[in-house]
Design brief:
Layout lengths: L1 H4 L2 E2 L4 E2 L13 H23 L8 H8 L4 H17 L5 H17 L1 H7 L8 E3 L1 H15 L4 H22 L5 H9 L9 E3 L6 H15 L3 H24 L17 H6 L8 H13 L1 H5 L4 H11 L1 H24 L25 H28 L9
Parallel strand pairs: 3-4
Antiparallel strand pairs: 1-2
Length: 397
């Protein structure tokens, strides 16, 4: 099985040569399913951007609509590291590939993806350094790190995740303004000119490095792999409950049982920008713990999610303009016109939505479901194309 799994694309995290009908034993089903689930869940929050609903509150329905999507970025970046490890077991050009792929992703984030978010071309006013941006730069850094022993890379990754909440704040005053925003403070500070940095390099490079070392665990004999995954995953969950429960360490915002936010929501409301230790334990723990179960998953839902999991980058590039276009349609149906707010600087640099614009949660989920169903045929076609052909350019999509 390991030999087949080496045919893995570090940008997609999935085998790009295996036909859709191949048996589950020929690849890591868990990788397919994690990637596919990330793509589907991610679209919920991106529809929310155009719905005008706030991120994470004030009602439980809106809070959990946002909270469930918190699992996406950590899993996406972690498995990207795992994919790099698997790719490197078969291809000698891992460093070059990570470097070129990373730079390519940064360029796409600032051009194609930026236009998809905004439907305007005023680049001088707004650029977004989102999750594709940070994956790109982390891949560039990983191109150097992969020269080190796998265990050392993993150790560095875990150390960054574990200590950045304690180490980085005292260092920030000595770091130049622009570098500080790119490395860590990101969304907590004003933009760098037109560039709004949503995802900082730290701690995400730690997540990718830890995922890289996890690739070795994934290739262990199944029984041992499952035991290790459960130990790591459940250990992370237990550590999260301990540190967060007693407000010991791991998040700059302690939770409280005081109003206005209910205690449970406050407990789960961990810091994402930059991603705190609590945030990463809360999201990566369950992801890793589920790997043994996902490896044994079968049936139609597995095949359906696997399609999205095989071509996650194509899905990502297509889903933003599709959701944006659906939002224009919803606006026209509800208001008799396309609201100009939909051409502002989404998702983080736009003003509040105009009065009367905000959607209901029901409408949000209806548009999300429509988007996912509309994306399936294109993703299925492209997955089949990648299975049949070996053109070099296909590895960049």
């Amino acid at each position: 099985m390991a030999e087949t799994l080496r045919q893995t694309d570090p940008a997609s995290g999935l085998p790009d040569r295996a036909p859709l009908g191949q048996t589950a034993s020929a690849r890591f089903v868990s990788i397919d399913l994690i990637r596919g689930a990330v793509m589907v869940l991610m679209a919920i929050d991106h529809v929310r951007v155009y719905s005008g609903l706030p991120p994470g509150g004030p009602t439980p329905g809106i809070f959990f609509t946002r909270w469930i999507t918190h699992f996406c970025a950590p899993a996406f970046i972690f498995v990207a590291g795992t994919s790099a490890f698997l790719y490197g077991r078969r291809h000698p050009d891992l460093q070059r590939f990570l470097l070129l792929r990373g730079l390519w992703l940064v360029v796409l984030e600032l051009t194609v993806i930026r236009v998809a978010w905004t439907f305007n071309l005023d680049f001088s006013e707004y650029l977004l350094a989102g999750v594709i941006w940070t994956i790109g730069w982390c891949m560039v850094l990983m191109a150097g790190l992969v020269r080190l022993p796998v265990g050392l890379v993993g150790g560095l990754g875990v150390a960054i995740i574990a200590v950045h909440n304690a180490v980085m704040p005292p260092l920030l005053p000595s770091i130049p303004d622009t570098l500080r925003k790119l490395l860590y403070t990101a969304f907590a500070e004003p933009p760098i000119g037109p560039l709004m940095v949503l995802y900082s390099i730290i701690p995400w490079i730690g997540v990718m490095a830890a995922g890289y070392a996890f690739g070795r665990i994934l290739t262990l004999p199944p029984l041992r792999r499952d035991r290790v995954c459960l130990s790591i995953g459940l250990g992370c969950i237990a550590l999260f409950l301990l540190l967060r429960g007693f407000n010991l360490y791991g998040d700059p915002r302690p939770w409280t049982a005081e109003p206005p936010m209910p205690a449970l929501l406050s407990f789960l409301n961990t810091t994402k920008y930059p991603a705190s230790l609590s945030f990463l334990l809360m999201t990566l723990g369950p992801t890793v713990a589920l790997v043994p179960l996902l490896e044994r998953a079968r049936g139609a839902p597995v095949r359906w999610l696997g399609v999205f999991g095989r071509v996650p980058f194509l899905y990502y590039v297509l889903h933003i303009p599709l959701i944006h276009g659906l939002a224009l349609l919803v606006s026209f149906v509800r208001e008799g016109r396309v609201n100009p707010w939909l051409f502002a600087n989404h998702p983080m640099g736009n003003p509040p939505p105009p009065d009367g614009y905000t959607w209901s949660l029901g409408l949000l989920y209806l548009v999300w479901l429509a988007a996912v169903l509309l994306l399936y045929p294109a993703c299925r076609w492209f997955a089949d194309l990648k299975a049949r052909r070996k053109d070099w350019w296909l590895s960049y999509l």
